[in-house]
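User: structure tokens for this one?
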Amino acid sequence: MSVRGRCAKVLPSELNKVCPERGDDPATHPRKMSDFEVVPNLQQSSSSVSKSRRKAHFPTGSNEKENLISWIPENIRKKECTYFVESSQTSDSGRIVCECGYLREQHLDDGAKPPIFLGKEWDPSRHIQEMPTDAFGDIRFTGLGQKTGKYVRVSSDTPPRVIYHLMTQHWGLDAPNLLISVTGGAKNFIMKPRLKNIFRQGLVKVAQTTGAWIITGGSHAGVMKQVGEAVRDFILSCSHKEGEIVTIGIATWGTVYNRESLVCPMGGFPAEYVLDEENQGSLSCLDSNHSHFILVDDGTHGRYGVEIPLRTKLEKFISEQTKVKGGVAIKIPIVCVVLEGGPGTLDTIYNAITNGTPCVIVEGSGRVADVIAQVANLPVSKITIALIQQKLSVLFHDTYELFTEGKLVEWTKKIQDIVRSRQLLTIFREGKYGQQDVDVAILQALFKASRNQDHFGRENWDHQLKLAVAWNRVDIARSEIFTDDHDWKPTDLHPVMAAALISNKPEFVKLFLEQGVRLKDFVTWDTLLYLYDNLAPSCLFHSKLQKVLLEEREHTAGSKMPRLQLHHISQVLRELLGCSTQPLYPKPKHTERPRLSIPVPHIKLNVQGSSLRSLYKRSAGRVTFTMDPVRDLLIWAVVQNRKELAEIIWAQSQDCMAAALACSKILKELAKEEEDTDTTDDMLALAEQFEHKAIGVFTDCYRKDEERAQKLLTRVSEAWGKTTCLQLALEAKNMNFVSHGGVQAFLTKVWWGKLCVDNGLWRVITCMLFFPLLYTNLITFSREKRLQPMGCLTRLRAFFTAPVVIFLMNILSYFTFLLLFAYVLMVDFQPTPSWREYLIYFWLFSLVCEETRQLLYDPDGLGLVKMASLYFKDFWNKLDICAILVFIAGLTCRLIPSTLYPGRIILSLAFIIFCLRLMHIFTVSKTLGPKIIIVKRMMKDVFFFLFLLAVWVVSFGVAKQAILIHNEERVEWLFRGVVYHSYLTIFGQIPSYIDGVNFNIDQCSPNGTDPYKPKCPETNADNKKPIFPEWLTVILLCLYLLFTNILLLNLLIAMFNYTFQQVQEHTDQIWKFQRHDLIEEYHGRPPAPPPLILLNHLQLLVRRGLLRRPATHHKLKEKLEKNEEAALLSWEMFLKENYLQHQQCQEKQNTEQMIRDIAQRVDVLAELLDLDRVKRTGVVEQRLGSLEDQVHQSAQALRWMMQALRGNGFSSGEDLPAVGSSRALDFKEADLEGKAEERRPPYHVLARNLLYPGSHTLRFPVPDEKVPWEVDFPLYDPPAYSADHKDMAVQDPFSLSLESLLKINYNTMDGLIDRQSFHGLYAVRDGLPLNPMGRTGLRGRGRLHCFGPNHALHPVVTRWRRNLDGSIIRKSLKKTLEVLVAQYPLSDVWALPGGSLEPGETLPLKLKWILRREFWPQFQNLLKQGTEVHKGYLDDPRNTDNAWVETVAVSVHFDNQNDVEMKRLNSFLQGCDPELCIRWQVLDKRIPLHANHKELLHKVSTLLGAYY
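Assistant:
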């Protein structure tokens, strides 16, 4: 037997073996788990793990480890046997063991001594105590790579909430969206290979797609091994991020082999575990493919099944928790998946069905699963003991002999109850239509259970939709939810639409849009704020918003963080979109603004404390929708880099081209600040995609209508900050868009102004020099091309205001300025300035005025600071300012006689800068423009190269100077020796004194006194020969030249070559992009060239300064009329739809996509062929069944014909042939009878539930066929139970002694107690009455207060359901009812306002709780006037063999909505308990009431002819 690794007292030597680097376990006094019912430091521990860093598998850091070491021993216990009581059984090695299964030496020291209890029976409640657990931490499976999981040893009495807290807070698991409990055979079994693959793939798929937890038994055998291998195969085939599946193994500690390696009082980080199947014996090894283990300890060894109660409680606790994610709050659903299995599996299925947990039975896996699967479609009445016996003999052929008659009865009863709950039972059959995958079967089972669950109104459908959104299974939503069974209003989908957006589920967003959700109705101010409030904390935009809020808090000097508002978002967006855009969300002038008033369904949606439903349910006020909801949603998706969502929303946009370009700009700006390289790449890729979308739409528009397409470029977009598409493209540096032929054609059109673009340049220059030629046909104008004649002045104005003419005149002016400037510098630079020099000063003044105009020109009202920042961003403006400043400095020196010469030098430098400015003029040339771009790029390369070169130059220069020359103190000669000479050496000017061959002492100064000669190198004092090491200097020189001349210079050439090729590939795009700046500059420039431009400046000064006229917008913007703009946007949207359709067609025609589609079809075809063999049998069975039905119908028709003929005397009837097989007819009639029985069970069902309510008593199992007392049932031996009701004044004796029972008078009035049954006389046996409906499996009176009938009264108060106008609402052509229901304290379900009658009372006590005392007599009168719908036995869970409930149900219906009695009833409704709820509820079959109460409602609806 394995050594028990669970001693509280561990020797230091043993501890070091098991848990190295740990000391002794601190002494701890044993405590019971009851002391830990309230976990004291749950709140403190919740902060130990940052939720933003949670993962299913994460390495334990030092902080988490310390927290775990301190928290687990305080809150989680283990169990130890404290007294050794010798057992009659021995261990595997033949040694004496305790009743707990452990050896004597494996007990505590005190427990091994002979105690006072020795010789008495072993009692777990006294002999087993709880103490802090000593096994927890990380588990690593030796020899299986780096597989590491979490484990903990817990007491079997541990509260489930403590374990759940451990998993979610300390192990870092996110709460699941679904809980999959896999149960079945604990021993290895054989499954068909195909079924095994289907099960594995489907189970892992549903876990991975829905974010589920899989819970198993955790051992390396049976179904647990199958699950582990499925998870292993999935992890191996996926990336690490995708392969995280939480698989929790809940096993019994006492059955784990090698568990001693897990014992470590201070935690194992990690604990090494060896999986040894060969030597495990009767124990089990843990499965290495599970991620977490909960090892349940009850203080025993080798006993299986200990973990089942705790596992059941934990699963139930988790299923009661609410998971909030992405705006959707759902109760975590649970499903039980069954493979194979034995008796324990049947109990698990039965408990699951009893608790309302849906079960998926995998048919073909064997044993219990196959037994249930084979009888699941039969009527319950057909599931008999004989049938179950037959199934067990086939499927349990190895262990069938162990089944006793009592066990067969129990199995039959449980299987009947399981099959009776068909809404919770799903059979997965291989090849069944619509259920080819296990994942679909699991999710369909949950929906099936949810759909058949009782509910109020739309709650059921809402719950299903929330589940589908939480699981991200849009395929299930399409097939199971959005069907013809339910009509969804678009407003009903608004909350889940927001949830799908927040949780980034684009497929659901697309589905909701298909279902009619209109973004215009969905997006409101509050909804938008809600979406921004729930940005991911890791999002860069979120951090930028937080920064803005912090700045506002500091500005206002407040202590509280201001609440996020839309103007904060607008502030960040303006930084991203550029200053040329206006704020998208202006700051509100008033603190209060109108709220929403939109009705939405009652769906509980909570995120971070805020309720989404509250956004749509505000106080009265007008609804405040945003100006452009699609734009707002698109920005919200783009700033989070959500590609699929952004594409779906963009497809809904109207101003689509501007939207795409704006998104590209936002993404590029965010990518600059993003630190994560992967996210940066994704952002840039998405920005490029949006640019391509804009190009695609513009291409279609341009092909359709060039003029309207060009209007789209310059149209002022109100939605995007009063900017234009062209401006957005330029801000985002979308070169592909700007270089588009249509954009360039527009720029060319702007460049030529009112001139025709086909005018030759030589014609323009000729007319510019000889303007009278304008009045000839040498130059053509665009208006004249349209047959619109122009006047003389108009032609002159149109010509000289054209940007191309302004540009040529400025070139001519600039060349004249440079020629004059050069002439003055070289020829006419006198001490007193000449008239030519004064002309240059005047000319420069005009240039300064023009630069000032450009700086101050602000038609958009951006402000001086913004305009200055935009002005200085341009490189050529910086060069202009530099040239002007240098010129002013030179002019200042020139005007001072003492600094005349320095002034000329400075002016010469200014001339160089003015000449460099010529390059900007040449950018308009298609030939020279790209070359200038290449030169600018190469200048950057040169600066990087000079840094590398400086390292070699300085290093060589300093070394050379130090070796050759001693103590050179002259700074200028130091610079020459270190930098200047070393630099010239690269180009071949090698110093002559670097070696002794060419040394000449006359060329240097020995002492360094000659200011015109360098200091001589180190020489011999005798013969003046150099004494420095010549060999060293030569070697250094060779190395220096090698690296600089060969390596670095060639590196520079390579860099230039790379830059040239890179720019040359895109030179056309770059030139076209930069061409715009020049065109825009001269488009808004005054027409006169310098210095005549001063006249224009004077005109501008008069207009703006004196006349106060607004600035003229010279930018390429055009404000359209509303009607024209609407028509233009509609046209653009239409072409966008064409573009998207064209893109879809191209994707389908793509070769790779076609190959993928063909491969998918081949896979589907192969699967269908594989399923053909399986389906063939089923098809044949269906056809035979259909043929049998037809034969039966034909036989019936022939029989009727023969009977009719015989009735008319055509046959004597003696030789009447038999028509149809009597066996077939009997089968058909039996089948019809079975279906009738399915609709209404022939015997009481609730009264035979195995667990009696309100107690731990289990009934004796009674199958349907054994219910009647007339049927012989020798095994029937029910337990007795009678509760003692201390709060009841009158109740029958608690004991079943004959003496006390003989005092009771049955079938008559016994004092105040009415013991007469509505069904007549009932039998009395041994002083006890017998239930007239048959056996229940329990003797005594249970929780009822009297033996025999216990009378009750249930008033069914109804009224018609009406619209606001008073008309009755109908459904399926029938009127709908509302019924009065109540929910009593300590009850989870609703019920009719009635109950048991106290002896001598006429109204039930529960009814009195609802009505005020003064209304009791009037309500009795209403009951007398009502209609009795039921009088007799009521199938109640409290019924027993000797006590049962009989009730009278009276229908009290108010037909008129103005009925005085109904109004009085409403006014007298009250609740004596604050937890008592009363309401009028719509009556239908899904109303959540007690099952027996629903039968009464059915009778009432039938009586009134109402819908049910």
